[in-house]
Amino acid sequence: MTNVLIAFYSRNGSTEALAKAVAEGAQAAGADVRLRRVRDIVGPEVMAMAPGWAENSARMHAEYQAPTTDDCEWADGIVFGSPTRFGIVTAELKSFIDSLGGLWFQGKLLGKAGGVFSATATTHGGAETTILSMFSVLSHLGLIIVPNGYGDPITFQAGTPYGAHTAVDGQYVKAPHENDLAVARYQGQRMAKVAGALKTLRG
Ligand SMILES: Cc1cc2nc3c(=O)[nH]c(=O)nc-3n(C[C@H](O)[C@H](O)[C@H](O)COP(=O)(O)O)c2cc1C
After folding, report:
1. Which of 52, 81, 115, 137 has its CA 20 to 30 A from that of 98?
2. Is 114's C-beta closer than 6 angstroms to any atom of ligand 1?
3. Nearest CA to ligand 1 atom 31
4. CA-CA-CA-CA torsion for 160, 163, 167, 171, nearest 10 degrees?
Protein backbone atom coordinates (compact mmCIF):
# COMPACT_ATOMS: atom_id res chain seq x y z
CA MET A 1 0.00 0.00 0.00
CA THR A 2 1.26 3.48 -0.86
CA ASN A 3 0.73 6.09 1.84
CA VAL A 4 -0.15 9.66 0.87
CA LEU A 5 -0.37 12.55 3.34
CA ILE A 6 -2.26 15.67 2.32
CA ALA A 7 -1.35 18.49 4.70
CA PHE A 8 -3.35 21.64 3.96
CA TYR A 9 -4.44 24.92 5.47
CA SER A 10 -7.74 26.59 4.62
CA ARG A 11 -9.89 29.27 6.21
CA ASN A 12 -12.87 29.36 3.92
CA GLY A 13 -12.91 26.08 2.09
CA SER A 14 -11.31 26.63 -1.34
CA THR A 15 -8.08 24.86 -0.46
CA GLU A 16 -10.06 22.29 1.52
CA ALA A 17 -12.10 21.45 -1.59
CA LEU A 18 -8.90 20.95 -3.59
CA ALA A 19 -7.44 18.84 -0.77
CA LYS A 20 -10.48 16.56 -0.76
CA ALA A 21 -10.23 16.13 -4.52
CA VAL A 22 -6.48 15.32 -4.26
CA ALA A 23 -7.44 12.71 -1.63
CA GLU A 24 -10.10 11.22 -3.93
CA GLY A 25 -7.58 10.92 -6.76
CA ALA A 26 -4.98 9.26 -4.55
CA GLN A 27 -7.53 6.85 -3.12
CA ALA A 28 -8.81 5.99 -6.60
CA ALA A 29 -5.21 5.05 -7.46
CA GLY A 30 -5.16 2.67 -4.48
CA ALA A 31 -3.34 4.81 -1.91
CA ASP A 32 -4.01 4.95 1.81
CA VAL A 33 -4.64 8.65 2.46
CA ARG A 34 -4.38 10.87 5.53
CA LEU A 35 -6.10 14.23 5.03
CA ARG A 36 -4.90 16.71 7.65
CA ARG A 37 -5.48 20.44 8.26
CA VAL A 38 -2.79 22.48 9.95
CA ARG A 39 -3.97 24.62 12.84
CA ASP A 40 -4.69 28.34 13.05
CA ILE A 41 -1.93 30.46 14.49
CA VAL A 42 -3.68 33.83 14.66
CA GLY A 43 -5.94 35.09 17.43
CA PRO A 44 -9.73 35.54 17.40
CA GLU A 45 -9.38 39.22 16.53
CA VAL A 46 -7.88 38.27 13.15
CA MET A 47 -10.35 35.44 12.58
CA ALA A 48 -13.17 37.95 13.07
CA MET A 49 -11.90 40.14 10.23
CA ALA A 50 -13.61 38.31 7.36
CA PRO A 51 -17.00 36.66 7.06
CA GLY A 52 -16.88 32.90 7.57
CA TRP A 53 -13.32 32.57 8.79
CA ALA A 54 -14.11 31.75 12.41
CA GLU A 55 -17.07 29.47 11.58
CA ASN A 56 -15.34 27.57 8.78
CA SER A 57 -12.18 27.22 10.76
CA ALA A 58 -14.10 25.78 13.73
CA ARG A 59 -15.84 23.28 11.43
CA MET A 60 -12.55 22.16 9.87
CA HIS A 61 -10.87 22.05 13.26
CA ALA A 62 -13.51 19.51 14.35
CA GLU A 63 -13.39 17.60 11.08
CA TYR A 64 -9.67 17.12 10.51
CA GLN A 65 -6.78 16.08 12.71
CA ALA A 66 -3.66 18.23 12.59
CA PRO A 67 -0.75 16.75 10.62
CA THR A 68 2.14 15.43 12.68
CA THR A 69 5.75 14.49 12.08
CA ASP A 70 4.61 10.86 12.46
CA ASP A 71 2.26 11.38 9.49
CA CYS A 72 5.24 12.59 7.44
CA GLU A 73 7.29 9.55 8.42
CA TRP A 74 4.34 7.30 7.54
CA ALA A 75 3.86 8.90 4.13
CA ASP A 76 5.48 7.81 0.88
CA GLY A 77 4.19 11.01 -0.72
CA ILE A 78 3.27 14.37 0.82
CA VAL A 79 1.07 16.95 -0.89
CA PHE A 80 1.02 20.40 0.70
CA GLY A 81 -1.94 22.71 0.07
CA SER A 82 -2.32 26.34 1.05
CA PRO A 83 -4.14 29.51 0.16
CA THR A 84 -1.82 32.04 -1.46
CA ARG A 85 -0.90 34.91 0.85
CA PHE A 86 0.86 37.80 -0.86
CA GLY A 87 2.30 35.37 -3.40
CA ILE A 88 3.54 32.64 -1.04
CA VAL A 89 2.14 30.01 1.33
CA THR A 90 0.35 30.80 4.56
CA ALA A 91 2.27 31.17 7.81
CA GLU A 92 0.09 28.36 9.14
CA LEU A 93 1.36 25.80 6.62
CA LYS A 94 4.92 27.11 6.91
CA SER A 95 4.70 26.79 10.68
CA PHE A 96 3.95 23.07 10.29
CA ILE A 97 6.75 22.67 7.76
CA ASP A 98 9.14 24.35 10.19
CA SER A 99 8.32 21.62 12.71
CA LEU A 100 9.93 19.07 10.37
CA GLY A 101 13.51 20.05 11.23
CA GLY A 102 14.08 16.83 13.17
CA LEU A 103 12.97 14.65 10.26
CA TRP A 104 15.09 16.78 7.92
CA PHE A 105 18.14 16.33 10.16
CA GLN A 106 17.71 12.56 10.13
CA GLY A 107 17.10 12.45 6.37
CA LYS A 108 13.77 10.76 7.00
CA LEU A 109 12.01 12.38 4.05
CA LEU A 110 14.75 11.83 1.48
CA GLY A 111 13.48 10.21 -1.69
CA LYS A 112 9.79 10.47 -0.88
CA ALA A 113 7.48 12.27 -3.31
CA GLY A 114 6.27 15.85 -2.78
CA GLY A 115 3.68 18.07 -4.44
CA VAL A 116 1.86 21.36 -3.87
CA PHE A 117 -1.48 23.01 -4.68
CA SER A 118 -2.89 26.43 -3.90
CA ALA A 119 -6.04 28.57 -3.87
CA THR A 120 -6.10 32.26 -4.70
CA ALA A 121 -8.75 34.96 -4.89
CA THR A 122 -7.85 36.04 -8.42
CA THR A 123 -6.73 34.11 -11.48
CA HIS A 124 -3.30 35.73 -11.65
CA GLY A 125 -3.00 36.29 -7.90
CA GLY A 126 0.16 34.21 -7.43
CA ALA A 127 -0.72 30.51 -7.27
CA GLU A 128 2.27 29.72 -9.45
CA THR A 129 4.68 31.73 -7.29
CA THR A 130 3.28 29.99 -4.22
CA ILE A 131 3.73 26.53 -5.69
CA LEU A 132 7.13 27.25 -7.22
CA SER A 133 8.46 28.82 -4.03
CA MET A 134 7.37 25.67 -2.20
CA PHE A 135 9.50 23.64 -4.60
CA SER A 136 12.53 25.16 -2.78
CA VAL A 137 11.16 23.83 0.50
CA LEU A 138 10.56 20.40 -1.01
CA SER A 139 14.17 20.38 -2.22
CA HIS A 140 15.49 21.12 1.27
CA LEU A 141 13.38 18.31 2.69
CA GLY A 142 14.78 15.93 0.06
CA LEU A 143 11.37 15.24 -1.46
CA ILE A 144 11.27 14.34 -5.15
CA ILE A 145 9.14 17.10 -6.71
CA VAL A 146 6.12 15.77 -8.56
CA PRO A 147 4.56 18.43 -10.81
CA ASN A 148 1.35 17.83 -12.74
CA GLY A 149 2.75 18.68 -16.14
CA TYR A 150 0.11 18.36 -18.83
CA GLY A 151 -0.22 14.63 -18.26
CA ASP A 152 -4.00 14.80 -18.35
CA PRO A 153 -5.91 16.85 -20.97
CA ILE A 154 -7.80 18.59 -18.16
CA THR A 155 -4.63 20.55 -17.36
CA PHE A 156 -5.06 22.44 -20.65
CA GLN A 157 -8.22 23.93 -19.15
CA ALA A 158 -7.43 24.44 -15.45
CA GLY A 159 -4.76 24.21 -12.78
CA THR A 160 -1.10 24.80 -13.53
CA PRO A 161 1.63 22.43 -14.75
CA TYR A 162 3.10 22.80 -11.23
CA GLY A 163 0.06 21.74 -9.23
CA ALA A 164 -3.70 22.16 -8.81
CA HIS A 165 -5.16 25.64 -8.39
CA THR A 166 -8.48 27.34 -7.97
CA ALA A 167 -9.16 31.06 -8.14
CA VAL A 168 -12.67 30.90 -6.74
CA ASP A 169 -12.42 32.74 -3.46
CA GLY A 170 -13.87 30.66 -0.66
CA GLN A 171 -14.54 33.86 1.24
CA TYR A 172 -17.52 34.44 -1.01
CA VAL A 173 -18.72 30.88 -0.53
CA LYS A 174 -18.30 29.75 -4.11
CA ALA A 175 -17.18 26.22 -4.76
CA PRO A 176 -14.20 25.61 -7.06
CA HIS A 177 -15.04 24.81 -10.68
CA GLU A 178 -15.31 21.15 -11.61
CA ASN A 179 -12.22 21.51 -13.85
CA ASP A 180 -10.16 22.72 -10.86
CA LEU A 181 -11.29 19.69 -8.89
CA ALA A 182 -10.56 17.36 -11.81
CA VAL A 183 -6.98 18.66 -11.92
CA ALA A 184 -6.69 18.13 -8.17
CA ARG A 185 -7.94 14.56 -8.53
CA TYR A 186 -5.36 14.03 -11.25
CA GLN A 187 -2.67 15.40 -8.93
CA GLY A 188 -3.67 12.92 -6.24
CA GLN A 189 -3.67 10.03 -8.67
CA ARG A 190 -0.26 11.00 -10.05
CA MET A 191 1.16 11.46 -6.56
CA ALA A 192 -0.03 7.98 -5.53
CA LYS A 193 1.59 6.40 -8.59
CA VAL A 194 4.92 8.24 -8.31
CA ALA A 195 5.10 7.82 -4.52
CA GLY A 196 4.49 4.09 -4.96
CA ALA A 197 7.26 3.80 -7.56
CA LEU A 198 9.69 5.75 -5.36
CA LYS A 199 8.82 3.56 -2.39
CA THR A 200 9.97 0.54 -4.39
CA LEU A 201 13.21 2.34 -5.25
CA ARG A 202 13.83 3.32 -1.60
CA GLY A 203 13.46 -0.37 -0.71
C1 LIG B 1 -3.54 38.15 4.09
C2 LIG B 1 -4.07 37.60 2.80
C3 LIG B 1 -3.28 37.65 1.67
C4 LIG B 1 -3.76 37.17 0.46
N5 LIG B 1 -2.97 37.23 -0.65
C6 LIG B 1 -3.46 36.83 -1.85
C7 LIG B 1 -2.65 36.91 -3.01
O8 LIG B 1 -1.46 37.23 -3.00
N9 LIG B 1 -3.25 36.57 -4.19
C10 LIG B 1 -4.56 36.17 -4.28
O11 LIG B 1 -5.05 35.92 -5.38
N12 LIG B 1 -5.31 36.01 -3.17
C13 LIG B 1 -4.79 36.33 -1.96
N14 LIG B 1 -5.54 36.17 -0.84
C15 LIG B 1 -6.85 35.52 -0.94
C16 LIG B 1 -6.78 33.99 -0.66
O17 LIG B 1 -5.70 33.39 -1.31
C18 LIG B 1 -8.05 33.37 -1.15
O19 LIG B 1 -9.13 33.94 -0.46
C20 LIG B 1 -8.10 31.85 -1.00
O21 LIG B 1 -9.14 31.34 -1.79
C22 LIG B 1 -8.40 31.44 0.44
O23 LIG B 1 -8.38 30.03 0.52
P24 LIG B 1 -9.36 29.23 1.54
O25 LIG B 1 -10.76 29.39 1.02
O26 LIG B 1 -8.88 27.83 1.45
O27 LIG B 1 -9.18 29.83 2.88
C28 LIG B 1 -5.07 36.63 0.38
C29 LIG B 1 -5.85 36.53 1.54
C30 LIG B 1 -5.35 37.02 2.75
C31 LIG B 1 -6.20 36.91 3.96
Report:
1. 52
2. no
3. 85
4. 180
Domains, the chain, ordered by start: 3-202 (3.40.50.360)
Judged against a pLDDT cut of 60, whether residue 173 lies above it is answered with no
83 lines ligand 1 (CB under 6 A): yes
pLDDT of 171 > 70? The answer is no
What distance in angstroms lies between residue 200's CA and the mean position of ligand 1's atoms?
38
What is the pTM (predicted TM-score) of this model? Answer: 0.97
Q: Which helix (H) or strand (E) holds 197?
A: helix 178-202
Q: Which residues contact 66 (CB under 8 A, 6 or more apart)?
A: 36, 37, 38, 39, 96
Least confident of 72-76, 86-90, 139-143, 171-175: 171-175
Ligand 1 atom closest to the CA of 15, numbered from 1: 26
Give the model's pLDDT for residue 169.
Answer: 67
Secondary structure (H, E, C), 4-55: EEEEECCCCCHHHHHHHHHHHHHHHCCCEEEEEECCCCCCHHHHCCCCCHHH
DSSP H or E run through 140: helix 127-141
List, in sequence order, every residue forming a beta bridge with 32; answer none if it has no partner.
Answer: 3
Q: What is the DSSP letter of 83?
A: E
Length of the chain: 203
